[in-house]
Amino acid sequence: MNIIYIIGIVQAFFIEFLLLNKKKKNLSDKILAAWMFVIGLHLFLSYLFHIEYYDTYPFFMGFVQPFPLLHGPLLLLYVYSLIRPNPSFKRIELLHFLPAVAFYILIFPDAFLTTGPELMEFAFGTLETNPPLYWIFFNTLNEFWGVVYVIWSLLVLRQHRKNIKDKFSYTEKINLGWLMKLIIGLAAIWVVVLATEEEDYIYVATTIFVFFIGYFGSRQGAIFTDNTSQNHPKSNNPEKGKYEKSTLTEDKSQEYLMSLKEVVESEKLYLENKISLKDVSERLEIHPNHLSQVINEELKVNFYDFINGYRVEEFKKRLAADTSKKFTLLAHAYDSGYSSKSS
Q: How large is the average pLDDT for residues 239-262?
């Protein structure tokens, strides 16, 4: 079992080293590096406990206790750093770490201001027979805090997927699979936490998770390299209430709608497989927010469905015209503006 801990520790700190060694680090790199440091340190301190090294440095036991409260917030902040149009760390987001700070404050007198024998008595006597209320509360919170943030991260990602379709006519290259893998990986650890009290199983799952990050991160390309190109275009703010302050009038809306349909149909813009709302807005010289509002409110669809509706009709026409069956369905799809077999 010791080798499992060591592998996880080395992997976590190595991934952190790769991220910090990037010349062009962005906010997401820094957050992921911080998360890898926390995971590596968590595994290291747990390893010391596993080999009963607490006899020499008993305060390690207190230092590691609030760590489970850090992983969920770091996941959520990493998700935000990748999907926000202009990623930045907001001071209010420090509140995500308030439970961990509170736990450290409450545990500090017992874990860091006592002698070794007193701490051992606290850890293996008081906590087993008559634990303080704060200990009961935070240890219960430790088990469910990550679940809250996994669900939170999934909801944020789901909203982002919806927003993407307001701006782009394709989704194949808007790769959010990396984030989904991270969320599922952390969710799997919390399933193990809730399913068993055996800490060795939890840390084996954590080691697998770190390997998982290294493997899929390397395949992602830009995670560990200096390639700063994004894996997916960024969407705007959530749809709810986004047109409340719009200055677009009904007359202008109808005018823009007619112009939009005319240019899309006459120039067959839908045949460009990577056409975006920004591209169309520039051709029409209409602000993209107004154009998005016209499509959403007048046509009751998003930009993705608007463009792909034309592609479906183009595909049907091409299929009907190909009476000799000279071309495959996939060939017709590509000629109709689709960019991949999956779409």
A: 78
Find the DSSP H helices in the chain.
2-20, 27-50, 59-64, 68-83, 98-112, 116-121, 127-129, 133-164, 177-195, 199-220, 250-266, 277-284, 288-298, 303-321, 329-335
Alpha helix (H) residue ranges in 165-229: 177-195, 199-220
Q: ∠ CA(28), CA(185), CA(216), 5° rounding?
A: 60
Is 72 in contact with 146 (CB distance < 8 Å)? yes
**Model pLDDT for residues 80-111, shown as the tens digit of each residue:** 888 876 677 888 999 999 999 999 898 888 77
Return the C-alpha torsion angle 57, 62, 65, 66, nearest 10: -120
Residue 149 CB neighbours (<10 A): 24
- Are the C-beta atoms of residues 29 and 19 closer than 8 Å to each other? yes
Torsion of CA 205, 206, 212, 214, to 10 degrees: -150
Query: Within 10 Å of residue 254's Cβ, how many Cβ atoms?
Result: 12
Q: In degrees, to the nearest 5, what angle opens at C-alpha 203 toward C-alphas 50 and 120?
A: 30
CA dist 95 and 97 (Å) reads: 5
Q: Which two tokens stand for residue 33?
A: 């590096």
Separation CA 290–CA 252 (nearest Å): 9
